[in-house]
Design goal:
The chain is an alpha+beta fold. The protein folds into two domains: about 35 residues; about 100 residues, no CATH class. Helices cover about 45% and strands about 10% of the residues. Strands 3-4-5 form a three-stranded antiparallel β-sheet, with helices on one face. Strand 4 and strand 5 form a beta hairpin.
């Protein structure tokens, strides 16, 4: 404290004022940061006859995806052989693994067609990207 007093005396600042300034430096932040509350993420519920899925993100193509889910799987999350003898996966019945793998590369998205939220997100990106015609049900339900 003696060194501070000598220094402040040289600068002609009283020790009381100096101690108040030193204390203020600790109490008053050098900068102020405004913190806003985190906005809750958007959720979307898709539904059909006897099924519904709620995902923790906004979906752009809700009606098309609801119609695809209804037509492809009736909302049942299942893996089963399709007419081409390849396994179709999940509520949106991604056929084989080539479609899913191709779209993972195209959209830089990793997930699984057996996880409904992943399938809905992938379908939303595909539809927005012009790939609605990849589903047979899009033709059957005249979505194109």
């Amino acid at each position: 404290m003696r060194t501070l007093y000598v220094f402040l005396t040289i600068l002609s600042i009283s020790p009381v004022l100096a101690s108040n300034l030193a204390l203020a430096a600790f109490l008053i932040p050098a900068r102020q940061i405004a913190v806003s509350p985190i906005k809750p993420s958007a959720t979307t519920t898709l539904s059909g006859k006897n099924w519904h899925y709620t995902v923790p993100f906004a979906v752009r193509n809700v009606q098309d995806i609801e119609k695809l889910i209804q037509c492809e799987s009736m909302g049942v999350n299942i893996a089963r052989p399709d007419s081409n003898h390849k396994i179709s996966w999940g509520i949106l019945q991604f056929n084989g693994t080539s479609t899913w793998d191709d779209m993972e590369q195209r959209f830089h998205y990793r997930g699984s067609p057996m996880i409904p939220g992943d399938a809905i997100h992938m379908a939303d990106m595909m539809i927005s990207g012009g790939f609605l015609g990849r589903w047979t049900c899009a033709h059957i339900d005249h979505l194109l």
